[in-house]
């Protein structure tokens, strides 16, 4: 929001305060300088000028607004909001115009998004969101924005599929698992303070803890134990042959097989989300572009031209990107799946499994490409009837979902190795959103 402070208005306000002509000229000079610097993009100088005007006469609310605008342009939202709310205390919240109220709200949301983009602690964004809802709990504009924030954009690391095993993350930070335990991959009952989980069909499973460390269980054939030394991790992804961790500062670490260069991520920066497939690593950058390394026989890594992406997933030789407008693009050798997803619209989240892709629509129903593989014919059966879904995981055995009420749902496993991986009976209090 751009707001023009009319010098004449401010001069009248100063005259009304009883100040002399000399003070009036000083204030007018500072306001004119602030407006000039703001229009030229010299935001630091603009802040200095507006702050000086406030010191000379702290009774003009519009100067607080302009100072907050200058701070916002520098992404210094904390100071922007502080200055603005000092002005609100001056005139009373009941006297703040609708236009200025919208600007007030926008600063909070811009601050929240900025914290997330910079890889700050998740609690920072959560605290900001709580402040917004505390100030305007019944406002339709804010409720709409809050609902969008609750949509499960990004990899929903609250569900994972492993070696004939299904995992879910509870709200209390513990993890539940059902299915096969041949490789010890179900030994997660002692995990606590977990914020995200990931697993692969090779029998390895990982949990990212609140403190940024990683716990794991199952097969250690491809470097699972190496992740025990990782710190400041916010997200993790595994193909079974290599493991990739996203750090809080937007850089990436990797371990495991590097035959196709899939672990060559040491120079990546500004990454906000990661995904892996066998021999492939995909990274989503904060500006909505995508980077990729690894196997490229079928153009899987030809994603440099992608723009406006909000989520990436990789699975079974296909790389998929969800765009901000709810449409989907894809690269790779699985042409049938790629063609289907590129016809999707109004998508809020995607997940790729073996021989199929699923998506959550913005109305929380589910779409899928249908299954094109030889092992699990029932993996997509009944998905069209699912509703109120806020997280989903496509795997090699079943499709699992979390409903908004915290319960879980799964398709029926019809393959040759039933291990109970589709029995999510009793799963409640499941984590329902990804932040």
Notes on the protein architecture:
Helix 2 packs antiparallel against helix 3 (43-56). With 435 residues, the chain is an alpha+beta fold. 48% of the residues are buried. It contains nine helices and 21 strands. The radius of gyration is 26 Å and the shape is elongated. The model is unreliable at 1-20 and 148-155 (pLDDT under 50).
Secondary-structure map:
Blueprint: H1 7-16, H2 21-40, H3 43-56, H4 61-73, H5 77-91, H6 98-117, H7 122-135, H8 140-150, E1 159-162, E2 165-169, E3 175-179, E4 194-199, E5 204-209, E6 214-218, E7 233-238, E8 242-247, E9 252-256, E10 271-277, E11 280-285, E12 290-294, E13 309-315, E14 318-323, E15 328-332, H9 335-341, E16 347-353, E17 356-361, E18 366-368, E19 389-394, E20 399-403, E21 408-410
Antiparallel strand pairs: 1-2, 2-3, 4-5, 5-6, 7-8, 8-9, 10-11, 11-12, 13-14, 14-15, 16-17, 17-18, 19-20, 20-21
Helix pairs in contact: 1-2, 2-3, 2-4, 3-4, 4-5, 5-6, 6-7
H/E topology pattern: HHHHHHHHEEEEEEEEEEEEEEEHEEEEEE
Number of strands: 21
Coarse shape: elongated
Mean pLDDT: 86
- Profile the largest sheet: 3 strands, antiparallel
Structural class: alpha+beta
Tags for this model:
435 residues; alpha+beta; 3-stranded antiparallel β-sheet; 9 helices; 21 strands; disordered N terminus
Short description:
The protein has 435 residues and is α+β, with helices and mostly antiparallel strands.
């Amino acid at each position: 929001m751009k707001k023009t402070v009319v010098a004449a208005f401010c001069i009248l306000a100063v005259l009304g305060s009883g100040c002399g002509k000399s003070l009036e000229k000083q204030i007018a000079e500072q306001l004119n300088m602030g407006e000039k610097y703001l229009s030229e993009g010299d935001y630091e100088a603009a802040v200095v000028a507006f702050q000086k005007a406030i010191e000379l006469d702290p009774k003009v609310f519009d100067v607080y607004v302009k100072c907050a605008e200058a701070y916002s342009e520098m992404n210094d939202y904390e100071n922007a909001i502080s200055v603005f709310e000092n002005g609100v205390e001056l005139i009373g919240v009941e006297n703040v115009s609708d236009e200025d109220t919208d600007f007030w709200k926008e600063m909070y949301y811009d601050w929240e998004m900025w914290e997330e983009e910079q890889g700050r602690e998740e609690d920072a964004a959560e605290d900001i969101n709580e402040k917004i809802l505390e100030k305007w709990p019944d406002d339709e504009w804010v409720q709409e924005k809050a609902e969008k924030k609750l949509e499960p954009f990004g990899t929903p690391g609250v569900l994972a599929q492993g070696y004939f095993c299904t995992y879910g993350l509870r709200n209390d930070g513990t993890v539940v698992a059902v299915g096969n335990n041949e490789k010890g991959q179900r030994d997660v009952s002692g995990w606590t303070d977990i914020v995200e989980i990931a697993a692969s069909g090779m029998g390895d499973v990982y949990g990212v803890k609140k403190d940024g460390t990683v716990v794991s269980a199952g097969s250690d054939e491809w470097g699972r134990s190496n992740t025990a030394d990782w710190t400041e991790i916010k997200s993790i992804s595994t193909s079974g042959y290599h493991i990739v961790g996203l750090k809080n500062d937007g850089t990436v670490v990797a371990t495991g097989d590097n035959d196709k260069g899939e672990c060559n991520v040491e120079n990546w920066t500004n990454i906000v989300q990661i995904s892996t497939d066998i021999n492939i690593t995909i990274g989503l950058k904060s500006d909505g572009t995508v980077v990729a390394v690894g196997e490229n026989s079928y153009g899987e890594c030809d994603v440099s031209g992608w723009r406006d992406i909000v989520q990436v997933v990789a699975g079974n030789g296909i790389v998929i990107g969800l765009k901000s407008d709810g449409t989907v693009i894809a690269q790779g050798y699985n042409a049938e799946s790629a063609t289907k997803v590129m016809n999707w619209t109004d998508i809020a989240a995607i997940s790729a499994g073996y021989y199929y892709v699923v998506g959550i629509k913005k109305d929380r129903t589910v779409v899928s490409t249908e299954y094109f593989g030889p092992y699990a014919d029932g993996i997509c059966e009944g998905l069209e009837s699912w509703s109120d879904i806020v997280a989903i995981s496509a795997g090699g055995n079943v499709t699992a979902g979390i409903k908004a009420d915290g319960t879980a749902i799964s398709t029926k496993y019809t393959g040759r190795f039933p291990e109970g991986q589709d029995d999510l009976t009793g799963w409640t209090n499941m984590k329902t959103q990804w932040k």
